[in-house]
Design a protein that fits this description.
With 156 residues, the chain is mostly helical. It contains six helices and two strands; from the N terminus they run H-H-E-H-H-E-H-H. Bound molecules: heme C.
Length: 156
């Protein structure tokens, strides 16, 4: 019963699902909004934002980091509507890691930024393993994949 409810309103029940007595799984709702695209395409967008977020943080561009963290949260919420057979715990762990990173960004805490970014990356990979796509391995970007975007804070 709980699973059915979670499938219908997964994004809404992300926060308390971790405390459920029986294992909860993230399943695709029976009716999916037409505006929602393929999960793999969302993940490519998430991959790009993960890279931009890192570049913004290490460049001390906090407004950009904050913007990208919000974008990533929105993509996570969209993706949560199309997951199938993924334990809800892995979804909530990723959301929490992103929220913790956002908190570091909003206080411009560079010392917390790196470990929390690593925790977010770990949560990406933990979900990939539990979703059966453990061959998709995410890591800290070594350089920016975007040569057409400047990451230094804009000068006035
Ligand atoms: C709660 C589960 C979950 C989380 C969290 C998650 N992913 Fe994924 N990811 C998936 C699933 C499931 C797939 C396979 C999608 C498919 O093939 O339909 C996937 C696939 C991918 C792919 C391969 C897409 C392709 O078409 O080649 C990339 C890249 C990716 N994820 C990046 C990320 C990054 C970066 C993060 C963290 C910031 C992340 N993912 C977090 C579940 C997750």
């Amino acid at each position: 019963m709980r699973r059915v409810l979670c499938a219908a309103t997964l994004a809404a029940c992300l926060m308390n699902a971790a405390h459920s007595e029986e294992p909860a799984f993230a399943q695709r709702p029976e009716t999916q909004p037409q505006s929602i695209g393929a999960l793999s395409d969302m993940m490519i967008s998430i991959l790009h934002r993960h890279a931009i977020l890192w570049m913004a943080g290490v460049s001390n561009n906090w407004p950009l980091a904050d913007y990208e963290a919000r974008q990533l949260k929105t993509r996570f919420m969209e993706a949560a509507q199309v997951y199938r057979n993924i334990p809800v715990e892995t979804v909530t762990a990723a959301t929490k890691a992103l929220d913790d990173l956002s908190a570091a960004i909003s206080t411009r805490n560079k010392a917390q930024f790196t470990p929390r970014f690593l925790e977010l990356t770990r949560s990406c990979n933990a979900c990939h393993v539990s979703a059966g796509v453990g061959f998709v391995v995410i890591e800290t970007p070594r350089t920016s994949p975007f040569t057409n975007q400047a990451f230094a804070p804009a000068t006035k």
